[in-house]
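Lecture notes, unit on protein representations.

Consider one protein chain, 671 amino acids long.
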Amino acid sequence: MNKYSYLILSFLMLLSIRAVSQTFEENVAYGDDAFADGDYYTASQHYKEAIDIDNSNLQIVYKYAESCRLTFDYKEAENYYSYILSKDNKNDFPSSRFWLAMMNKNNGRYIEAKENFRKYYEKHKIDNDYFSRKALCEIYACEFALKAIKDTISVKIEHLDTNINTKYSESGAIQVKGEFLYFSSLRPVLSENVKSIISQTYLSKIYKSRLRNDKWTLNKEIDVKINDKKTHNANIFFSKDNEKFYFTRCAAKNNSQIQCAIYVCNYEKGNFQKPVKLNNKINLPGYTSTQPCLASTGEDKEILYFVSDRPDGYGKLDIWYSVIEKDKYSEPVNLGSNVNSYGNEITPFYRSATKTLYFSSDWHKGLGGYDIFESKGMFTQWSFPKNMGFPINSRCNDLYFTVNQIDTNGYFASNRIGSLHLKGETCCYDIYSYKWIKKEHKEKPAEIKSKEIVSITPEKIEEVKKVNIIKKTNIKSEINELLPLTLYFHNDEPDRATTKIFTDKNYKTTINEYLSLEYKYKKEYSKGLTGYKKQKAEKDIEDFFNDYVIKGLKNLEKFTVLLLEDLEKGNDVQITIKGFCSPLSTNKYNINLAKRRISSVKNYIYEYNNGVFLKYLHNKAVNGAKLNILEAPIGEEQASPLVSDNPNDKKSSVYSRAAAYERRVQIIKYK
């Protein structure tokens, strides 16, 4: 299990009772032991006592700064990373600049954060590792944050009272029937009144509160069948009929490393039945599966969204889904790189009524560490995530966004300033409610007419120059915003009814033929329907062609312009193209079809602008730059299990929007 696993249970932080009055060497030894065991709070106490005795040892100062960061003591961490940078003449601590920038951001100092991220990136961009990529991403995130905090969204945020929140950590609030609130809380196993000679142990359990006179009653633990005394229990989620629910159990390896599994339990006549652990498809042995969320497809099937660090993801923790039919779970599928990133995507919540996924990410552009985002879609087709804005998001961590069953309001968890806390003002998580309010009319500022003279200061000119430099040097970042670049095809195209793996067709030719069939798609998909249902079916097809097929072609045109610009700068480039098919025909046939589709996209690149890319493909460019195109055809193996594979039902297997989604090629990687 990797070192980021402690994020899974609402940033689990276990605290210990510390020894006092130790020597410098003893404090360092105790601190090292605690840090190795993941007990960062105890480690920070011992390291602080050590540097109070002698602050000349930068190694110990750095460990203290790290301990503070890992217990969300942003201010203290910022101070000591800054101190290290001022003293580190030999560059023994190269990560200090990066972490200082992160602490700048968590303390709302976005201008300083942006500058420190820029300095780190300029020095480390050649590394092309997680930290250099993250620094580049955060430069734009800081620019976004500076704008977002000035553009407050119309929502009322309330901090729930002490009937729900404690000085420990609460998270994952779900309102059921408008009457009950279920949530998780990390609390001490022993009463605070009980004195113990051993370290205090903290355990996560699920609690319940009832609404009485518009106020939540004092919370109580739910049934011991669910709150197992040997594991952390959290992340409860009810089915639509409230007769079944999913939750997570996690076993702690040490204070920061845990491995989680998803369980399901029936809820009959107000009583919890014995929970059952889901099979190895969902709970892949050796990996974490957590934070379950259930969605309805409207076709007597359900979708289980969940978080896992299993192989073949895009980052650390990714969001996956499995289709449930007759209590059987399909093989989990990754949501794709529109949602998942190099970082962590966690706490999914899907609202079926609006086909919207809410989740938290530490990678997409945000105001703090984790921000809440929304994305429209289903299965592997998602719009690019939209930040929920300020004050839903803050400079701290915001996660576990949920929407009520009875309205559009809901809850989320945050360690923002104002949360109750045990040690440090941002140590712990509380539950907050949000309520949307009507947006007040804001008068737009007067537009500057073309003839008006605008004063441009020398400082403004320098700022524009800096922005332009960043834009020029970050072609890859612009390209990554287009990825995965998805291109769509008509059924069995190009070159129908053949087993060839190559085609002479250019994708642009193929797409023009596809677009000409929009009328036929409308006619076939709406066949047998009348009135509103017929109009809705036709609108579904029209939206698909506009929002996906045409958009894909436009993105391909943008991509090729940026690709050429990158190669002209002398950079070697490797791109990976992945092919997909609907479940019609055999898998062997579909793999060949996927290869032909990839071939048509390659032909588009070969023939672009009179063959301008050929010199880079054949290693004949004067500047030495090379272009390499990798293929990854997968046939129907990842096609949605909800798409019909009946060749006699062309309405569903050929002309439906769901089937059309599956017939695609994606440019998935740009290296």
